[in-house]
Specification:
The protein has two domains: 166 residues, Rossmann fold; 171 residues, Dehydroquinate synthase-like, alpha domain (Up-down Bundle). A six-stranded parallel β-sheet has the order 1-8-5-4-2-3, sandwiched between helices. The protein has 14 helices and eight strands. The longest helix is centred in the middle third of the chain and has 23 residues. By secondary structure, it is an alpha/beta fold.
């Protein structure tokens, strides 16, 4: 027996943004987005569809939200009486929205800070709804309840997860992704590939997550190199958007595993972009996973082909996209890499990996 649960209403495909008015109904909305969204015309696309129901726009969300950033954002969100937050952007924007939409007993951010740092739970007395509109094909955050929050003061990464942080709806429109630069296209695509593979070599995998993850991994491996060569091809953009959505749905039930656990110190200590940080170790982690569990091997073979050569094929795939695959390439010596690997296997996400003793 197995369970699969995902409560997010998802509208996907070319022109999916047109569903925003129906999803919003008679409610008012606050738009959270990134700085370039205005110059790219994305804010205007939302404004055209919502008119006066869009009460304000906050367009200064920065990558990798830190507790200090969210503390400044929180009162900006709650000074409005909008019932819905629309998060338009990549994972950082959607994660920022998740952290900001949870009402606290005091109306201040410090309860969320205490929850993340000390585990002091509280019952939110109110909460805004979230409609997540990804502009990258990779985050998965639009169909998961988790928000990654960085704590640079304590040199830690936190994961916010409450029943209220599930998005109400996800709008996945490849049209919003057609202007992505090559670097973001590759990084977000590799994030999605990591989500797919991490859902397979995972203790929490089930037949539904497996089907989604295999489809996602196969599509990304076939599509991403072509999309790099033809970034304006909307057929390829749509294929990547679907694959990223499938990967997000898969890990919404399994969570991530060792490659993501390794990625957090690489981002925090070495400044590596998340999509690279969680994917450059995929050949290493694949080698550790293969042979651990016959059932998992069978699913991995569906995703990657014959397993004897799978780590080498993954390494070649990454290198053709310009991604280096050794810790030393990023300034981490052999001893540091070994220590990081040991630490990662003890983390919450690391313990989901089938190669780690339960």
């Amino acid at each position: 027996m197995y369970h699969f649960h995902n409560p997010v209403r998802t509208v996907a495909g070319l022109g999916a943004l047109n569903a925003l008015p129906e999803l919003l109904g008679t409610r008012r909305a606050l738009l959270l987005t990134f700085g370039d969204a205005k110059s790219l015309g994305l804010v205007e696309l939302v404004r055209q569809r919502l008119g006066e129901q869009l009460v304000d726009v906050i367009a200064d969300i920065t990558p990798n939200p830190d507790l200090a950033d969210l503390e400044l954002l929180y009162p900006q969100v709650w000074r409005h009486d909008a019932e819905v937050v629309i998060a338009l952007g990549g994972g950082s924007v959607i994660d920022s929205a998740k952290a900001a939409l949870v009402g606290t007993p005091s109306g201040q951010f410090h309860e969320i800070r205490q929850l993340l740092r000390e585990g002091q739970r509280f019952e939110p007395p109110r909460c805004k709804s979230l409609i997540a509109v990804p502009t990258t094909a990779g985050t998965g955050s639009e169909v998961t309840p988790w928000a990654t929050v960085w704590d640079r003061e304590q040199q830690r990464k936190h994961s916010l997860h409450l029943p209220q942080t599930w998005p109400e709806a996800a709008v996945v429109d490849p049209v919003l992704m057609r202007s992505l630069p090559e670097s973001v296209t590759i990084q977000s695509g590799l994030d999605a590939l990591s989500h797919a593979l991490e859902a397979i070599w995972n203790r929490n995998a089930n037949p539904v997550s497996d089907a989604l993850a295999v489809a996602a991994a196969r599509s990304i491996l076939a599509t991403l190199p072509d999309l790099r060569r033809a970034p304006g091809d909307m057929v390829l953009r749509e294929a990547m958007a679907l694959a990223a959505l499938q990967a997000g749905l898969a890990f919404s039930n399994t969570r991530t595993a060792l490659a993501h656990s390794l990625s957090y110190p690489m981002t925090l200590r070495f400044g590596l972009p998340h999509g690279i940080a969680c994917s450059f170790t995929l050949p290493l982690v694949a080698g550790m996973a293969i042979g651990r569990d016959a059932e998992r091997d069978a699913v991995l073979e569906q995703a990657l082909g014959p397993l004897a050569e799978a780590p080498a094929r993954l390494e070649a795939f990454l290198q053709k996209l310009g991604v280096k695959t050794r810790f030393a390439d990023y300034g981490v010596d052999e001893a540091g890499a070994a220590a990081m690997l040991d630490e990662a296997q003890q983390g919450d996400r690391g313990r989901n990996f089938i190669g780690v003793a339960a």
